[in-house]
Amino acid sequence: IAKEWESTFVSQIQQCGEALQRHTCRAVCHKYGNDASCRFLFPHEIVDKSTFDAATNSVLFKCVDGTVNYFNPSILVCCRHNHDLRCILSGKSAKAAMFYISDYITKMDTKTYEMLTLL
Predict the structure, then answer these.
(1) Looking at beta carbons, which pairs linking 73-76 to residues 24 or more positions away fall under 8 Å?
(2) What residues pair up with 22 in beta bridges, in sequence order?
(3) Pairwise CA distance, residues 66 & 113, whole Å
(4) Are 66 and 45 within 8 A, CB to CB?
(5) What pTM was computed for the model?
(6) Cβ–Cβ under 8 Å, residues 117 and 96
(7) Which one, out of 4, 17, 31, 33, has a CA that is 20 to 30 A from the CA of 113?
(8) Confidence band of 10 (pLDDT split at 50, 70, 90)
């Protein structure tokens, strides 16, 4: 039964990943005068393995497909929603994430990019 479960789980990761995690650029990707590239930074850089960069204090996640969000297989299959995993240790990334999350939750009139200019 364990092999059957694992096979089903892998199949569900593939199905949910393709349906929920793959990014396709649309008009919203190029808002705010960003016509040349995707504002969500797609495609991601291909990275062979996850590493920690001490110089920038950053975690770089393994990436085998630049058009797929970083995701957790268990969260993906159990919750069946898109998500994007990021390692946010401190600094501007943490502030940007804090504003994005609070903006998303409260649907403030002031947009994230406007708030970031105040920092």
Answers:
(1) 73/9, 73/13, 76/13, 76/16, 76/17, 76/20, 76/21
(2) 68
(3) 24
(4) yes
(5) 0.68
(6) no
(7) 17
(8) very high
For 39, phi then psi, to 5°, come to: -70, -10
Using left for φ > 0, alpha for ψ between -120 and 50, and beta otherwise, residue 57 falls in left
Whether 85 has a pLDDT exceeding 70, the answer reads: yes
Q: Tell me which residue of 24, 68, 21 sits closest to 47, measured CA to CA.
A: 68
Identify residue 117 by its one-letter amino acid code.
T
Is 77 within 8 Å of 12 (Cβ atoms)? yes
Query: Pick from 23, 61, 59, 56: which is nearest to 41 by CA?
Result: 23
The pLDDT of residue 56 is above 60: yes
**Which amino acid is residue 27, in one-letter code?**
A
Contact residues for 4 (Cβ-Cβ < 8 A; gap 6+): none
**Percent helix, percent strand, percent coil in the chain, to nearest 5:** 45, 10, 50
Q: What does the block give as tokens for 76? A: 């993906």
Closest CA to 54 of 10, 89, 19, 95: 89
CA pair distance 51, 42, nearest whole angstrom: 20
Record the tokens describing residue 1, joined without a space.
Answer: 């039964």
